[in-house]
Specification:
The chain is α+β, with helices and mostly antiparallel strands and about 280 residues long. It has a single domain, classed as Glutaredoxin. Helices cover about 45% and strands about 15% of the residues. The protein is built from ten helices and nine strands. Strands 4-3-7-6-5-8-9 form a seven-stranded mixed beta sheet, with helices on one face. Strands 1-2 form a two-stranded antiparallel sheet. Helix 3 packs across helix 4. The longest helix is centred in the C-terminal third of the chain and has 23 residues. The chain starts with a helix and ends with a helix.
């Protein structure tokens, strides 16, 4: 009897069932669904090696349907804030629309092209034009109060923002649409209907970060130009060209690319001043 019991206990299906029950008891069905989806997806491999494109330093674009670069704790934190059943319980038409929107990150503003210019207001009313940042590297990501991955990155970008001189690298956030308004982590938030509503939420975000925030109007011209995904990030070089973009912002990839851009700029300067 003891031998049979030992065999059953060593069976992988038995162990899996025990672990599943324990996980369900500790977290909940929504977290289990989300975490399983995230870890099955994982992160898409990305090479930080710079490339030459028509004499310009660029980097491989990074695409992933899920932010697989997060740690277990970060993913679990995200899972506790969204309505997972709502995410995965969409109708075929809703899934088709969502997939079409996500796909725009691959077609809009590809690496190597002149970045679409924009003129947006900050949370304090100043006007910011991307084209005015020529001569400096511009780095930005799309954020919203109700986008858990973006909120995670907001905290991580604090160090990145403080690291660089604004004469060399300008870092800022573009506030766009709410992604999980009214869901488990954000019950007090609602979908924004006007630009002023969006500005109000952006001001709330500005209270928890020193990184400057500009606001995409309610008709979302900037989001449409750069790809309609929740938390994309872009690096624009000193000439105004897109040199890196990521479907999900990852401060580590951003920092590695920026460092190499600055190194390439320094190398150019050294070549110009060195005797022929």
């Amino acid at each position: 009897m003891k031998r049979k019991l030992l065999v059953v206990m060593k069976n992988k299906w038995f162990l899996g069932a025990v672990l599943a029950i324990a996980a369900l008891g500790t977290f909940g069905s929504q977290e289990i669904i989300y975490m399983a989806r995230q870890y099955m997806a994982g992160d898409v491999p990305w090479s930080p090696a710079p490339k030459d494109l028509n004499g310009r330093v660029v980097f491989e674009e990074h695409y992933s349907m899920h932010p697989g670069h997060y740690t277990f704790a970060e993913k679990l934190g995200i899972a506790t804030k969204v309505d997972v059943k709502k995410m995965f319980g969409k109708s075929p038409a809703e899934r088709k629309k969502a997939f079409a929107e996500f796909s725009t990150i691959r077609t809009q503003s590809p690496v190597g092209v002149l970045a679409p210019d924009f003129e947006l207001k900050t949370t304090t009313g100043e006007t910011v034009r991307l084209s005015d940042k020529r001569g400096r590297i511009a780095v930005f990501m799309f954020v919203a109060m109700t986008c858990p991955p973006a909120r995670t990155q907001v905290e991580l970008w604090k160090g990145l923002y403080e690291k660089y001189d604004t004469n060399d690298v300008e870092i800022f956030f573009v506030y766009s649409r709410e992604r999980h308004a009214g869901e488990r982590g954000y019950p007090e938030f609602k979908e924004t209907k006007t630009t002023s509503d969006r500005v109000a939420y952006a001001k709330m975000l500005s209270k928890i970060t020193a990184v400057p925030i500009v606001v995409d109007p309610i008709d979302e011209p900037t989001l449409k130009d750069y790809g309609m995904v929740p938390n994309a990030a872009f690096i624009i070089d000193k000439d105004g060209f897109v040199v890196f973009k990521s479907q999900w912002a990852d401060v580590r990839k951003i920092e590695r690319a920026v460092q190499q851009l600055l190194f390439a700029e320094e190398q150019k300067k050294q070549l110009k001043i060195s005797p022929s």
